[in-house]
Every structure is written in C-alpha cells, then in structure tokens.
Give the backbone structure.
Amino acid sequence: MSKQLELLTEVVPKASRVAVLWNPDNSGNARQLRAAEAVSGLRLEPVGARSSAEIDKAFATMAQQRPDGFVVLLDPFFVGERERIADLAIRNRLPGVYGFRIHADDRGLMAYGASRVELARQTAYYVARILKGAKPADLPVAQPTKFELVINMKTAKALGLKIPRSVLLRADEIIER
C-alpha cells in the first residue's frame, strides 16, 4: 500500500489526509492498515465496509471528512463492488488508487498491484511442480516480482485532475476510453 500512497501523493501533491477503504472482516486488511499507518507520513483515515450499504455509508463519511484522496485495500468484496465504488468516487470527486487493475478498467482512477499475468505464471509453475509429485509444503513461498500501474484518463478528466508526466511515463497502460 505504500506505493499506492506514493502514487496518490504524486497525483495530488498537497495530499495530507487519505481515507483507506478496508474490510474489517479481512485480517489481511487490518495488517496492511497498521503497517501503512506506521510508515506513510500521511494522516490515514480508515473507513470500513463489509456490505453494499456500508460502502454507501463509507462514501458519505468521506464526503463529510473531505480527505484528499483514498486507497482501496485488496479484498474480493471490493472487486465485486468496483463499479459502485468508482461511481461514488467520481460523484464525490475523490481521487482513488486501487490494488487490482480491474478497478481502473471499470472507471477507477489508478490501479497499482501485482501483474495478473505474472501471478498466473507463478501459479502454473506451482501446479506443474505439484502434479510432478512435489509436496506443497516443500515449495518455496514466492512474492510477486512484477507490478503494473494502470491509469484511467477518462476518470482523471472527470475528477478534474492532471496526471503528472512522471506518473504517465511509468504507467504500463493508460486507459483513454
């Protein structure tokens, strides 16, 4: 999440307060949130949501608090609600950064996270090793090594944002539609 926060502050240079949309039912989200609070240098404002109604409440809270932007933590629930999240972000003029590229495909401003193609390759490698007789417990744990940045320029325009050239040059894909 630290890279996502860094990208958000490059796009919104005066950002000091950032909302973090997280799922309280996801223990991984809680760990990410604690780690980010310790190192970010930004004032993070956690906003929890575990249902569609709570997403609406989370954005109502953000609309009142007026953070400079928001980050959506990795959670399958948020993937399923990506269109609602994007709509609410645009309606409330909140720049957001997400961990899955599918969010940017569906009108989220920016996504930075592990490459799905690379993750699929790693998964295939492990499946092949297991099918050849390797014990799963004996296989090393692998961390993602390739990350991708996707920027949705139509959303940037809707939010009235000018994406810095330095960020655009690092993007793996720029969505113009």
